[in-house]
Design goal:
44% helix, 23 helices, nine-stranded mixed sheet, 547 residues, four-stranded parallel sheet, globular, alpha/beta, binds 1,6-di-O-phosphono-beta-D-fructofuranose
Length: 547
Amino acid sequence: MTKSALQIARAAYQPKLPKALKGAVKVQEGEATHSVADEEEIKKLFPNTYGMPLIKFVEGENKEFAPMNVGVILSGGQAPGGHNVISGLFDGVKKLNPANKLYGFLMGPGGLVDHKYVELTADIIDEYRNTGGFDIIGSGRTKLEKVDQFEKGYEILKELGIKAVVIIGGDDSNTNACVLAEYYAAKNYGIQVIGCPKTIDGDLKNEMIETSFGFDTACKTYSEVIGNIERDCNSARKYWHFIKLMGRSASHIALECALQVQPNICLISEEVEAKNMSLDDVVTYIANAVAARAADGNNFGTVLIPEGLIEFIPAMKKLIAELNDFLAAHADEYAAVEANKQREYIINHLTADNAAVYASLPEGVARQLTLDRDPHGNVQVSLIETEKLLSEMVGKKLAAWKAEGKYVGKFSAQHHFFGYEGRCAAPSNFDADYCYALGYTASMLIANGKTGYMSSVRNLTAPAEEWIAGGVPITMMMNMERRHGEMKPVIQKALVELDSAPFKAFAAARETWAKETCYVYPGPIQYFGPTEVCDQTTKTLQLEQAK
Ligand code: FBP
């Protein structure tokens, strides 16, 4: 395989480990935990894994560990650093005992159920150290929820002598990990399940999980290209760029990129919901900013749009909730309706308010809202072209204002959607180190007999030496939510909080950014060079942890 010069140089990078993980470790137990909400239900559903204590690793004495084999699964959307989680896990497992083996299940949780796996040897691992992507074993979105899936998984785990499985995934995949851990514990199968916090979306975070891996690299990659667009925009001075950013429901990516590049406008879905804004309010907000800049002779600008925006406009949220339940209950009937009658069919089956909102949507957006949900019941927001919807509506509003003599400028739009461009980027130094530490920590949780825990590495704005490694019971992050028309235990998503330091910093500056041109050009991620260029964390993390 031909490799780029950077790939060759980067392969030699040795990720940094927290001091406590450099030698032998011992477990320090913290307080017993409870779920973030719905305690009684969660306790009942997870009798074997509920309430376990927090765990921290501290320096300990060398001791012998019995030989063990471990399995690993990459689950859900790609995030930079996944390969380093696996190499950290591999190095940890081999350090415990060189005879230990690591097996990778192929193409996500489905590989466990279908018995598709590969032994990850040193040769394979070395090819993937510090690289982006999940291609070492592939990823998938199969939801592990049925007893026969758990049993099929158990068959192969037993056959390969695997003592523990590490599931590297987002909130939904770690929910899977928790359910699987509980099932194997209840059955006394002697198989441990450990989760690792992955997702570019940044929405798997809480007191003990400061950030999910991949968020840092993905945001830096998007910020690089948004910065390039801003510079183009400020050079040609003739386009408004509407840029949709991945991130599913949460607006963390949009917010972080805004803090890095200082665009003219950045919408934050959580704020749109809190202010009970309608689609027209959002359009008016953008159009006002465009008009104000035009009055200064600036017919150009940048608008950042979180991909989940549409779900947060209260009227749309109600509509989507009804559509979710309706489509879950009538999937076959709906599939049988001819394509050109589907819109009418939906309108006829919704309650009056929702039917009116649905009928008012442009054809394409309406159709996108009824497309298949992902296996976890989520609307596939990445398929909804919000950037085009908004620019079209802004254009119409400005044309009306022009006719009334309220607006004098020219409006011409360009559209972009950044998501896949950043999910497999080569991990930044931060993600390379963080991921390696998460994988290594997972091996220590396994060696110490833990199950139902998520690998946790904290104190992330300090140098890696001072990071704190340990484990958090996954049940601690759970609550009950409606999925596919039923209440289910799931990890609570962390959305942007409007009283958080990152949002406040953005809100304090945005009026100036809207009117003036304050663009910042972050440039590409640097892997070699001065630490203030190569090792800085996201602005989100810096602001959240500023003392
Ligand atoms: P997860 O990390 O939660 O799996 O999702 C990441 C993500 O990139 C989301 O931002 C996006 O909405 C989704 O995956 C798109 O997934 P897919 O490429 O499978 O359609």
